[in-house]
Amino acid sequence: MSKISQIVPIVLANPEKGSATWASVMILVRVVTSDGMVGYGEAVPTLRVINVYNTIKQVAKSYIGKEAEEPEKNYHEWYKQDFYLARSFESATATSAIDQALWDILGKELGAPIYKLLGGKVRDKIPVYANGWYQDAVYPEDFAEKAKRVVNMGYKALKFDPFGPYYDWIDEKGLKEAEARVRAVREAVGDQVDILIEHHGRFNANSAIAIAKRLEKYNPVFMEEPVHHEDIEGLRKYKSVVTSLKVALGERLVSLKEAMVYIGERLVDIIQPDLCNIGGITVGRKVVNLAEANDVEVAFHNAFGSIQNAYSLHLSATVKNLYLLESFYDWFPQWKRDIIYDETKVDNGHVKIPEKPGIGVSINEKAIESMKVEPKELDVVDEPVWVVKGTWKHFS
Ligand SMILES: O=C(O)[C@H](O)[C@@H](O)[C@H](O)[C@H](O)CO
Ligand SMILES: [Mg+2]
User: Fold this and answer.
1) What is the DSSP secondary structure assignment for residue 193, as one 8-state letter?
2) pTM for this prediction
3) Where is the Mandelate racemase/muconate lactonizing enzyme C-terminal domain (predicted)?
4) What is the band of 378 on the pLDDT scale with cuts at 50, 70, 90?
């Protein structure tokens, strides 16, 4: 068995920016074993690049010297050591990235792509929905025109946040603006394309309920993060009133037990674990089983880079109760696709499952070397990093 000998955090940036501020950076982890095997994982960037970079170095202390082929055991060792794992996003994302890299190594050592290690695929290709496609969309016609392009690319589902600069509350003007954008997209794509409404956890329960009442006539498949992430009471209130629409959430979950809170209380209909902060493959696959046992569908959150995307494809291949996988892939800056030699193209709304051992794609080490930067703070400006760029605006 090979020991973990090196864990290196790597921050990548490039002048070509993504469709959201956070999308212009990637944080990778390179794990090397005593017999020279190399695995890669990806952590969450957003507004904590420096913290995550440094936390990876601290979490690595728990993994160095351990058996590379034991991701499950290694996860629980760090879980025991880090008193605050379930309260620390940095620790959760660092652990998740290292865990991904260990599954990559495991697959390479056994000569099998990760989906095979998980019991094999239940589908031959992965259906995806589009996100990131509506940069600079402000007027309803902007959303409509961009949505038509997405459908012409072959996508059968698209997600967007129609709420401009509203936060906590939404007033009649905001409801009218959101409705105009959603109506324009529905009219542009017709009723055979799934529309998914992203709230980014902006609202209090009363506002989220008012939004649901206004938008339900456009038949959205789900309402994502309608209330603030930690507002369990607000979500209970929302679910008790809004019975005709499904709730999707999960991108901010950092543990299996946290997922259980929402699944156990029937507060989520489509769970969206993110393999870069839920606990990697090791925990991600457990959340999926919990969801299956409770008739909750799965749609992995998948918003960061091409390494995360590859792992999300593997898990999506093995999940019977998959709704769709999220994809920014066609709206990544090209450098993110170059890192994996653009091996996971979206074709007519579907992606082939990566078949090489481990992560399943080849890693462009030269591209990684050429884009390495020192971690630094991101500016905090009026438009938050978590919206698609140029959309934090009114039009009326
Ligand atoms: O559902 C999603 O893809 C997310 O909400 C993104 O839109 C966020 O911007 C990102 O996850 C922030 O880190
Ligand atoms: Mg989201």
Assistant:
1) S
2) 0.98
3) 140-242
4) confident
